[in-house]
């Protein structure tokens, strides 16, 4: 390692992205096949919506919000 490296300068966003990428690469390296979206999310620490809620239910909620916005604008 280079002992002349100035460690006072850090790009915290870049360092966080590198850490996430290395976590994902570790999971990929140990996987026996293609990763599912859920496995990738777990490796990255991403919280997903509860499985009980279907896409149709999410769409219905979105439609309700849009209707409410339209009626409140009038």
What can you see in these coordinates?
The protein is mainly α. It has one domain. 62% of the residues lie in helices and 0% in strands. The protein has three helices and no strands. The protein has helices at 12-30, 37-44, 55-73. Residues 58-74 have a biased composition (Basic residues).
Per the principal axes of the C-alpha atoms, what is the gross shape?
A: flat
Number of strands: 0
Count up the helices.
Answer: 3
Unreliable spans: none
The Cα radius of gyration reads 21 Å
Helix fraction? Answer: 55-70%
Classification by helices and strands: mainly alpha
- Percent strand: under 5%
**What is the element string, with H for helices and E for strands?**
HHH
- Major sheet size, sense and barrel closure: none
Mean pLDDT: 77
Domain count: the total is 1
CA distance, first residue to last residue: 65 Å
């Amino acid at each position: 390692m280079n002992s002349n490296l100035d460690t006072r300068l850090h790009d915290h966003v870049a360092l966080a992205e590198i850490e996430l990428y290395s976590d994902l690469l570790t999971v990929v390296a140990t996987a026996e096949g293609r990763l599912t979206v859920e496995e990738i999310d777990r490796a990255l620490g991403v919280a997903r919506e509860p499985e009980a809620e279907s896409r149709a239910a999410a769409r219905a909620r979105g439609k309700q919000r849009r209707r409410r916005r339209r009626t409140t604008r009038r």
